[in-house]
Design a protein that fits this description.
Helices cover 43% and strands 14% of the residues. With 456 residues, the protein is α/β, with parallel strands linked by helices. It has three domains: 2-64, Orthogonal Bundle (Arc Repressor Mutant, subunit A), CATH 1.10.10; 99-333, Aspartate Aminotransferase, domain 2 (3-Layer(aba) Sandwich), CATH 3.40.640; 340-444, Alpha-Beta Complex (Aspartate Aminotransferase, domain 1), CATH 3.90.1150.10.
């Protein structure tokens, strides 16, 4: 009861209902009015006095001792925008997350884990997970990763920030990124204090010839499936990129974000397997399973892995142990392989369905890129503002990605649309594209304005 009284009086002071300098009732009077013991009121007044809300003198009145602080109404965090038709790129099918297998992994791993594993880690990550991941990637992606060179991070973004920070500490000042690329990458690298240099891509991937002029000490690439154009780095470019890194003593950061989803052939092997001393390999569970797991991994040469580990330990003492235990068990028992085998034909069907639907309703948009991943890109005709089109689509319930005009990979400086097909249900593809087609006709003058645009 005395805590309830404290809370009521404290709130009254904060909100200004009890003004600074105003006298409170005596403990005897307030106790009588509330029908509680006087000792309870004395205890509440003493606590508020200790916190500085009231002051009292022997034989004097208890008064409000501080200016009122009006607590603004707390704004609820803005919820992520949801769409009736969600073609946003970079999202897997969350409904297909293997919940039962994951729950079993959590139970098994947590039930058998020694208590010592629940303490702070060394920053590198759980040894069991690093071993399982290294074995999986060496087999499935052709990497040459040793578990001691791997660092478990809270997703790709944290890992990239750690890498960029370590490189800045070693003297690197300029960091190359593909143009176009994932927008967050530029922000993360610049936040680490490095100058971001755009390197254009074309039909064969990164323009390696531009690296020599760029004078960068590192470059972030997506060679197996360039984001967002979907191009695959050609064999000649792969060789040239590795030769550039050897010649310059530079580092390549290989983002292998969705390479295990290839639908027409075996995925191209990772660059890291060809030059482990010059390539930092990175991946995450975001596209494989779910972004909410916040599990990423970086494999680097030993000396750099040690510096990344030291910085991560300073920042957060390591990623969540229980999630790492579960993921290690999930891989070890073959559940990750089973999930990938189950999802590949599903995503391939959705991709084929989306391309066929675009051909029927929006033939102006021609998809480009390899049959892989969770998105396709379509360049826009000249004169079409991709930013305006993406915003207008959001206004009618369609979530879609875009590439602004002028990006390095755009023909003639055109913009592009990026369609994700991982998160959208199969039955929603056709009505979603039809609605987008009606919006397209309205914005490009291909038909009269449609007052029933949002109806299908």
């Amino acid at each position: 009861m005395h805590r309830q009284l404290e809370r009521s009086l404290r709130d009254a002071v904060r909100e200004g209902r009890l003004r600074a300098g105003s006298a409170l009732p005596s403990t005897r009077v307030l106790a009588r009015e509330l029908r509680v013991s006087r000792g309870l009121v004395v205890e509440a007044y003493e606590q508020l006095a200790a916190e500085g809300y009231v002051s009292s003198r022997p034989g004097g009145k208890t008064r409000v001792a501080r200016r009122p602080i009006r607590v603004a109404a707390r704004r609820s965090a803005a919820a992520a925008q949801t769409f009736e038709f969600d073609f946003q790129p970079g999202r897997p099918d969350l409904e297909a997350f293997p919940r039962e297998a994951w729950v079993r992994a959590v139970r098994r791993s947590l039930g058998s884990a020694p208590a010592a594993q629940l303490t702070y880690l060394d920053g590198r990550g759980l040894p069991e997970l690093r071993s399982e991941l290294a074995a999986h990637l060496n087999r499935a992606r052709g990497t040459a990763i040793h578990p001691d060179g791997m660092v478990i991070t809270s997703g790709f973004g944290q890992g990239l920030y750690l890498v960029a920070s370590v490189m800045r500490g070693s003297g690197v000042r300029r960091f190359g990124v593909e143009d176009p690329t994932l927008g967050d990458a530029r922000t993360i690298i610049s936040t680490a204090g490095l100058d971001v240099v755009d390197i254009p891509v074309d039909g064969d991937g990164l323009r390696v010839d531009r690296l020599n002029r760029a004078r960068v000490g590192a470059v972030l690439v997506t060679p197996a499936h360039q984001y967002p154009t979907g191009r695959v780095l050609s064999p000649d470019r792969r060789a040239a990129l590795l030769a550039w890194a050897d010649r310059r003593g530079a580092m390549i950061i290989e983002d292998d974000y969705d390479a295990e989803y290839r639908y027409d052939r075996q995925p191209i092997g990772a660059l890291q397997g060809l030059r482990p001393e010059r390539v930092i390999y990175t991946g995450s569970a975001s596209k494989l399973l779910a972004p909410g797991l916040r599990l990423g991994w970086f494999a680097a040469p030993q000396s750099m892995a040690d510096r990344i580990t030291a910085l991560k330990k300073i920042l957060d003492h390591g990623s969540p142990v229980i999630d790492q235990l579960a993921f290690a068990d999930f891989i070890a028992r073959g559940d990750l392989d089973r999930h990938l085998r189950r999802m590949r034909p599903i995503y391939r069907h959705r991709r084929d369905h989306l391309i066929a639907t675009l051909a029927r309703h929006l033939p102006e948009l021609k998809p480009v890129g390899a049959a892989a991943g969770l998105h396709i890109l379509t360049w826009l005709p000249p004169g079409i503002d991709s930013d305006a089109l993406v915003a207008a689509a959001a206004g009618v319930g369609i979530g879609i990605g875009g590439v602004s005009p002028g990006s390095g990979g755009a023909p003639d400086g055109r913009g592009a649309l990026v369609f994700g097909y991982g998160a959208i249900a199969d039955h929603a593809v056709e009505p979603g594209v039809r609605r987008l087609a009606r919006l397209w006709r309205r914005m490009t003058g291909g038909g009269p304005a449609d007052p029933t645009l949002s109806a299908d």
